[in-house]
Amino acid sequence: MSNQNPVFIPGPTNIPDRLRLAMQVQTQDHRAPDFVNTLAPVLEGTKKVFGSASGQIITFPASGTGGWEAAVTNTLSPGDTVLVARYGMFSHRWIDLCQRHGLDVRIIECAWGSGAPADQFAKALAADTAHQIRAVLVTHNETATGVRSDISAVRKAMDASDHPAMLFVDCVSSLASMPFAFDDWGVDIAVSGSQKGFMLATGMAILCVSPKALAAIETAKLPRTFFDFKDMMNANASGGFPYTPPLQLIYGMRESLNMLFEEGLDNVYARHTRLAEGVRKATAAWGLDLVAQSPELYSDTVSAIYVPEGFDSNALTDHAFNAYGVSFGVGLGEMNGKAFRIGHLGSLTDVMVLSGLATIEMAMADLNYPIDLGSGVSAAQEYFRSGRTTPMKTAA
Amino acid sequence: MSNQNPVFIPGPTNIPDRLRLAMQVQTQDHRAPDFVNTLAPVLEGTKKVFGSASGQIITFPASGTGGWEAAVTNTLSPGDTVLVARYGMFSHRWIDLCQRHGLDVRIIECAWGSGAPADQFAKALAADTAHQIRAVLVTHNETATGVRSDISAVRKAMDASDHPAMLFVDCVSSLASMPFAFDDWGVDIAVSGSQKGFMLATGMAILCVSPKALAAIETAKLPRTFFDFKDMMNANASGGFPYTPPLQLIYGMRESLNMLFEEGLDNVYARHTRLAEGVRKATAAWGLDLVAQSPELYSDTVSAIYVPEGFDSNALTDHAFNAYGVSFGVGLGEMNGKAFRIGHLGSLTDVMVLSGLATIEMAMADLNYPIDLGSGVSAAQEYFRSGRTTPMKTAA
Amino acid sequence: MSNQNPVFIPGPTNIPDRLRLAMQVQTQDHRAPDFVNTLAPVLEGTKKVFGSASGQIITFPASGTGGWEAAVTNTLSPGDTVLVARYGMFSHRWIDLCQRHGLDVRIIECAWGSGAPADQFAKALAADTAHQIRAVLVTHNETATGVRSDISAVRKAMDASDHPAMLFVDCVSSLASMPFAFDDWGVDIAVSGSQKGFMLATGMAILCVSPKALAAIETAKLPRTFFDFKDMMNANASGGFPYTPPLQLIYGMRESLNMLFEEGLDNVYARHTRLAEGVRKATAAWGLDLVAQSPELYSDTVSAIYVPEGFDSNALTDHAFNAYGVSFGVGLGEMNGKAFRIGHLGSLTDVMVLSGLATIEMAMADLNYPIDLGSGVSAAQEYFRSGRTTPMKTAA
Amino acid sequence: MSNQNPVFIPGPTNIPDRLRLAMQVQTQDHRAPDFVNTLAPVLEGTKKVFGSASGQIITFPASGTGGWEAAVTNTLSPGDTVLVARYGMFSHRWIDLCQRHGLDVRIIECAWGSGAPADQFAKALAADTAHQIRAVLVTHNETATGVRSDISAVRKAMDASDHPAMLFVDCVSSLASMPFAFDDWGVDIAVSGSQKGFMLATGMAILCVSPKALAAIETAKLPRTFFDFKDMMNANASGGFPYTPPLQLIYGMRESLNMLFEEGLDNVYARHTRLAEGVRKATAAWGLDLVAQSPELYSDTVSAIYVPEGFDSNALTDHAFNAYGVSFGVGLGEMNGKAFRIGHLGSLTDVMVLSGLATIEMAMADLNYPIDLGSGVSAAQEYFRSGRTTPMKTAA
């Protein structure tokens, strides 16, 4: 069936044993007290991970894409204007979703590898004196390019012109791995999922919603039922769901929060930074370039790495899988064939990351890439060794 | 945490060990061959359970409600007319969903406990000479009342006036437990889920779609992205999903199909009939009445049973849970307080059903119901004994 | 593969989910701190279940039979005399083991269905003025006949003649289900296993050893290595095992103790008494007889029940398994064909026991036993209902 | 609780998911047909792994040490002479066991790092013209030193003087990882366990016994019951065990055999050779020495590696565990403090081995070992790359 090598795709991530066990729940009556008493603290704990006190957590049995749809349909009406920048596959897809829902999408086209263009947002918002723009949509961590955008800069851009638009943020591949400050950044809806930083199976969209966004429900005319915020909030308030809840994921979420809080969110973020920096040291040692254009854009959860001219990144990831049984992220969209990706988020240790680096290094050597075998691994080893103060084993 | 008593809610159902193991899948790259080779036969096998050769299986990481929404948004446009009968909680909810999506919903109000009114459908369709009605929506098994409707009669009603409307059927709590004949009944979209007859965790909406319904996609203007049929079909065709797939459920589905086919669908249906009949024998022995108005409406997956005048069904189900640790279905909607429900579907044996009957009997006696302790159990025992030819143990 | 019916054999018992999860442990280095820190509290907690403060817990990766062998080989020498009464299959097997190990076994033959004959022990010990008898061996709960013996009476018999013999007790099928008072009863070695009251997989012999028995090690000449007490105690003292430990069972044991202490040992015992009494009410209602000769001998973990003259108990248990998929205990040894057994120990609820009673009742009716269908179930229901004060669901 | 790093101790080994699932078996009646039908093919399949057609497989719920004890007590009598060479911890322990069982043990003392001295055996056997030596005991793979001995050479030494002694072989840490030829080598009893090459939990001793050894039972006077061959064979013949069987391990064994045969035993052996060779390349690159004295003695399942003069191997393994969360084997006995061990057996891939090498390399660098960081990893990478023909992913 499968070997025991970790995956290095940027999600779904490796599920630690503790969470695999937590999700092995026999069927319970979701209308009975056991479940009811489980749900409330899960919602409360999740808020902390978003960095929110005032937000409302809303989850759906769906993927992150469903979360995007929920954000849009609960707060907007056909014809409403939204402002988005396209700088990768996932911002592209969110744009597509908005267009299909009949929104007027003002798109700022950016190079893949760049991040959210706060200055251009500022300009567009300032120009929108009629306040037609109802929401600004930002992908916090563009999984396709390994770029983390500066949400607080976007917030500042919005504040600069005192624009009343809502701020929607896709944090699917950043939440619970990199710091997120829902309240401080003035986010109105943040959308995440169970299968990345939470280290669970795929199947739960997880949103945090501000009071301002909740107020927008009243006027939002896009049709919705499955993804209806109000139905979910009302049902949740009495411990239930408007339909059958994903029991296994709710129990998994409870244990995921336990794990995150036991390690400490700051330690979780620091671990991700360290793992990412190890991968970047290796990349530099190989003489390869990141897709992310500059250090302040580097993601701590995924690195997209250009293959040298004349090489095909798909051949590389195929070979790594076929010859060594290890999955890496393929190049998506514009990056197809040009870049491969190393996911380094979730339940991962230095040791596991080194195995990924050793593997892709062998695969590159097999395909005659101009790299020195071992160079990336030893650069990462050197980095991981230095300044270590706490044991790895708290990682999972 | 929990005891090992079975649940007798009409879903989610008791998950057999074999499927619990099948869903314990470590993360894989969903873009890699292992997953790709898994998906196709799962879709193919599922078609057999729907009784279809020409249909297209489409699944979403969602609940059955999501499946309803997918059915409607992919085939209809705002303002389109649909014809529905309301005879229980789930037909009610589907009506609500249609209304929220801006459809013109022609509702035939029926008594709870009755089934789909084929004759009234016939009349309404015959009167609709302009063919404004785009779809007829029917709940095959109304989980709230324990009523199974005759879909072939509805089809005949449609054929009688040669009406071109599509036929949408909710078979969430009937599929894989009671016979379903998608092709023979001329169904256009049938909607089910993973957590009932398939005995899996909640989280996957499962649809079968006819060529006629697929053709309707082209003109359907209701917005959709997460639930878009085309996106899913295109991605499935190359072995993938348009977003992260629910890996664990797909693998679970593969094993669920193995179990169903090993037992044999006809044996599965016969087992459900036998279990249901045992529950009905017990109900008669108690001197209680089913909500379902007549034998041809009796569901083989759930029985809704009226409590005697002056008793509160909620007190009964609460007591059964608190005193004996067993969950039964509460009375929903109009039946709230008036009826309790015994779910008898999925991975159940005679022996398990007897434990449920023994429990609710004790609970009724504790609350001074006018029943003879043991009467229901012995009636069911007598029935289960007679004419047994094959061993129970093949059940799961 | 298997259905979800409980088993009603007197062990191994139904494993609750919580313990199945607890035993799902990936390999760890058994010489590393994680394991070391786990073992000590497990040993300490186990002592409480034996009712001992002064005893030493010693476990081996083996079955209960291995525990018997360890008891004998660590404390006795070839030719040593032991006193035993034979009143069932397990006392018989222990005798056989002693004989194979070259001991001089003085056997008091008793009727199957009787218990340890304290008066005859008293006589034999009083007559042994030379104190040749080194140990008295008693089976606390004779699993073959459903007889619980009075250990404190045996102790009194020993004290009456101030006899220095050690007292060895087999409590494999009683410990953690019925009260055990190692210290108060003056037991020197008690032998149990993981697969009965502890509700775990088979594979761990669990012993409690008195200081007096530990002192006997010094002179004991029977050869031993795998089962050597000293090696195990020395290794345990530094957190290890003298060979690879059964990691999964040690972690399982930790959680089993948690479960037992959360429910409360007294509640566990009371639950077993209630379940057993329910079975006995049913037996009486059927008009059948227990093998146990009198009420003070009734076991709370297993009931052996005579089939009527002219019936074959093997045909009954075979039929129950083949027709209904439920396992009951066969008649062992002298009881082969004459009696069947219902195990009612471990992770069981009233509800589960009722399913067992309903099943064997159907099986008896199928085979034309002269019983009233439903009579046993309703007798047990009536009993289970009365005087209930706490919910069942704490059972597991 | 734990991270997801593999362990690199020489057993128990990393349990692959497939076997973790296979061992998750709910309690069954071990006297019922399901179990009976499972056991026979397991015993048959196990024979193939031993390389035997004529041997009898006998298993006990115990560790490998229990298997040694079973071998000795079933075939020998107090005072019998056995011939053994001591060249590591496990040969030492077997000697100790024989001595405790009152055997006359003729010991050939060898340097740790050497293997079974066929020439000295030949001399001793030739000198034993009275044929007092009843058995020659050999440790195939000495886990403490990483030495594999040549069993066929020992056989030749025995044949040279036509000596009738039996040949007992400890293959606990070699079977199912390195070739074993029970019949061709004329082995009489081979002893293994579940937790090494079979990749299962600890708890099952697995023996293969020749007709000649079975014949020796008749005269063997060492006491035994739990480990009695005859009891086990008789019970196995009718599908049972003489006491409660370790159900979970039997089912696990069934699946382990499936995995081994699917990969193909020759491929399993080749994989172990490749993994071991990778570790040896790394060792050479570090400039360190193996404890094994010469290449023909190199074990393919474990490498014992001397630390440089002035370093403490315990500090190294402690640091690797504490700083990086990875377990390596400590130096045992004479090697305590002088050598560490890398286990490379069971469910392992090139990729996993590289992570172990990267880790111990970092740990050595942290402790100022005179090695070049990355040197070992790149040597192994270079080796693993070359001549690869089949994908890794079949490994587990």
Query: Sheet with the most strands of chain A?
Result: 7 strands, mixed
Oligomer: homotetramer
CATH architecture of the largest domain in chain A: 3-Layer(aba) Sandwich
- Largest inter-chain contact set: A-B, 58 and 57 residues
**Main structural class of chain A:** alpha/beta
Number of helix segments of chain A?
13
What is the strand arrangement across the widest sheet of chain A?
Answer: 1-9-8-7-4-2-3
CATH superfamily placement of the largest domain in chain A: Type I PLP-dependent aspartate aminotransferase-like (Major domain)
Could you name the ranges of chain A where pLDDT drops below 50 across 5 or more consecutive residues?
389-396
GO biological process, one term (chains A, B, C, D): glycine biosynthetic process, by transamination of glyoxylate
GO molecular function (chains A, B, C, D): alanine-glyoxylate transaminase activity; L-serine-pyruvate transaminase activity
Domain Aminotransferase class V (chains A, B, C, D): 29-281
Modified residues (N6-(pyridoxal phosphate)lysine) (chains A, B, C, D): 196
Describe this structure in words.
The structure is a homotetramer of 396-residue chains. By secondary structure, chain A is of the alpha/beta class. The first copy, chain A, has two domains: 18-261, Aspartate Aminotransferase, domain 2 (3-Layer(aba) Sandwich), CATH 3.40.640; 265-395, Aspartate Aminotransferase, domain 1, CATH 3.90.1150.10. Chain A contains 13 helices and eleven strands. Chain A has helices spanning 17-22, 33-50, 64-73, 89-100, 118-127, 151-160, 211-216, 229-237, 247-263, 265-286, 313-324, 350-366, 375-385; strands spanning 56-60, 81-86, 104-109, 133-139, 141-142, 147-148, 166-170, 189-193, 205-209, 302-306, 339-343. In chain A, strands 1-9-8-7-4-2-3 form a seven-stranded mixed β-sheet, sandwiched between helices. A two-stranded antiparallel sheet of chain A has the order 5-6. Chain A has a two-stranded antiparallel sheet with strand order 10-11. In chain A, a hairpin with a 4-residue loop joins β5 (141-142) and β6 (147-148). In chain A, α9 (247-263) packs across α10. The two termini of chain A are 24 Å apart. The model of chain A is unreliable at 389-396 (pLDDT under 50). The interface between A and B is large, with 58 and 57 residues.
